[in-house]
Write a structure and sequence with these properties.
heterodimer, A: about 280 residues, mainly alpha, 9 helices, about 70% helix, about 0% strand, B: about 325 residues, two-stranded antiparallel ribbon, 15 helices
Chain lengths: ~280, ~325
Amino acid sequence: MAPRKSVGFYLSSGWLALVLLISAIGDNLPLPAYNDYDFDNAGAGLFSGKHILGTDIDGTDTLSAIIHGTRLSILISFSCVAVAMLLGGALGIVAAYFRGRVDSIITMYFNVTLSIPNLVLTFAMVAVLSTATPSDPNGRIPRVLVLIISLTFALIPILGRLSRSSALSWTGREFVQVAESIGMKRRHIMWNHIVPNVVPSMMSVGFLAAGVVIVIEGGLAILGVGTDPGQSWGSLLAKNRPQINDYPLTVILPAIAVALTVMALNFFGDYFRKRIDNRESRI
Amino acid sequence: MALALAKAVTVLVLATFGIALLVRLLPGDPAETLLPYGTPAEHEVLRRELGLDRNIFVYYLRWLGDFVRGDFGYFYNAGGSESTKVTTLVGNVLPRSALIMLYTMILSLLISIPVGVSLAYKADSKYDKFTSNFLFAVSAVPNFVIALVLMYLLAVKFQIFPAIGYTPMSDGLFEHLKSVFLPVASLSIGLVATQTRLLRTDMIATLKEDFVTMASSKGLTDRFILWRHAFRPSSFTLMTSAALNMGALIGGAVIIEAIFALDGFGLLLVSSINSRQYLAIQSLVALVTVFYVLFNAIVDIFYAVVDPRVRSHRGAA
């Protein structure tokens, strides 16, 4: 039986639905534009006229800025998780199924990558990929793509290790042994018998990973290597951080958006994990 | 044991070699970045000094040879002034990073152990449900969000703690503790949330064991059973996660160091990546990896101490 849907479930799904909706249509809402400098109302507080959540030091509407940042935060987070799930998931399943040397090599790769703090690793990757030299300030690869590649690189071993341990609990099962004994091709066994069982637990981890990406992206922005200022939640709060003394809301509000989203994503991850555990215990 | 050591050394070598590869891929001519006002001849000397005139393997082995002998290379100053030894820089930042890590661990364990035990004792009560849900929500809040909120509330609005900077212990213990309170609190809150939940889960499982029923039928007090019988076997996951977090905090507390302007180990690493300090990046990442591997090993030894059964047979961890 699925766990009873709690208040948290409705709150989380409501918030995530809102975030997705906003990232789709955000810039078309009847609000002041995110890059509109309303100098007369610079630094306005909450509920001041047309600026519901106030403005920053340049008079930019805080609500619009947060809404504008949603799209890139979500885009980066979801695309990293999707790619890392495919690559990490595949590596983990292959390692678990073939065991032996293949397993040792893949596991070693995971351990080596995990031994470097993921923020430091992504930071180094961003430094390598972005070729901002004086002659070529923008670099070869667009900023967002640099971030996505770097974050994915750090995410692969995390998801890969989980996929491996999840796959390991299936590779020894009777139905796999039967499939092997009747001479089924290994590729088919992996694809038909192992992948479908690993996918649900990967999905639940995927929600957690999406939250992790949002957090690391915010961290990179604070270190000055995130997306262009104000384009994502992280870079928005990094941009306004020097003003925390005078305009705290412009920092705290994007931070709260990050926190709520990560919370909702973690809740979903946990919810799906419980459902899978329940399904398992029924077998 | 020998196998574990071999594995740890392999991870160290591969991780540092991987970083050597990454470092060599960094865009731009390092000699010109490190000595922008140097003559071509000086650039050539620097390239040879860094080992950049040789292929990656020679470069790596030379660095490794120096590293194991305690020579971590130099941090070059763009202005052309004297370059600084990386060991000196590490000596400056490591004590504060290590202290912050230690305080964080102590504070988070001091809170999470009693709370975790009491939640397990009152499992499924209203108190447990509310606290557990609350902790679940808190564990999802990124530490930079906690840091910014705490900074605003406790340093800007009510000016109880300094907003930025680090005071060493030699300038007074009280001032020192005040200066590290906010960063330590920001790092601890998330840890408390995760660690309490880990302990609660394990403790609930232990409390269902026969030896606990046995102890309580002997008439031992609940308090005695909780702390003397049930806590130790329930503390494995907690201790593992605590030790691994310690390893991760040395280089991974970068954001907190940046927010509170602490100039710790993480920020040193980030700034050496930023300014293309080839040998410094190599050596610092190697140190981080050493810590990570070291704490992993400590966890293994710790298991054997806490649970004698592990000495002969290492269970699935």
